[in-house]
Amino acid sequence: MDRNAPVGIFDSGVGGLTVAREIIRQIPEERIVYFGDTARLPYGSKSKDTVIRYSRQIIRFLRTMDVKAIVVACNTASAYALDVIQAESDIPVIGVINAGARTAIHATRNGRIGIIGTEGTVNSGIYTEVMRQLKPDIEVFGKSCPLFVPLVEEGLLHDSVTDEIASRYLSVLKGKYIDTLVLGCTHYPLLRSTIRRLMGEAVTLVNPAYETALELRELLKSRDMNRQEQMPFEGEKYQFFVSDLAEKFTDFATAILPGEVKETKQISVEDY
Ligand code: DGL
User: How far is the CA of 77 from the centre of ligand 1 (A)?
Assistant: First the structure.
């Protein structure tokens, strides 16, 4: 495998950029090809079969870009499709759930952890399953927050409407005496300040993106697949693709990532 090849990252939309941002911070020498499935978002309310089909198409597209490893930067796709696509892939594929679960287990002091995510992620029970494997006596309280993704995609990151909706969703968790809350959807770190204010300083917020970036760094190193900064390459270091609304994505990505995103290309992902 060419260690100079890019890492493929995908999500249903802009949410995975919170993972790309951490990867850029932790392993700035790596090249990235990002795909956001903006035409078919949200994934959170789709069936498992549909999310698996979408994920397979995206993997086939990313493979045409000669990626050396893939990060499923979407909790819903990680919950529903990671096992399947890992089994089918001859390059490493990692998701975000193991990283998030591990971080939460280390962070909690009272053993009571909240998890917020899409309906798909929360109803799959995957976070509870992974956390209980790591620590059997842990108490996990899940709450799906289906309106968070459209609010983020609309750019309503600091808005009274977002405050009101977040307050309703999170009130359920406030009575559970959790001391740790996993932001189990890659869109949610963009609402961090609202969630922080409503949950209070005593609750540790876990963003699985950070730990995922570290996991990727270790994985690439351990397999001698890590890129060296001085290796020459053609084109842009970070490339962005979506299935719809490329310009809107470019503006969003520029707001989230360090440095300007010059271009996003639209592809027809159904063709893969
Ligand atoms: N950002 C994705 C996640 O982490 C899903 C958002 C959606 O498409 O529903 O679950």
Answer: 8
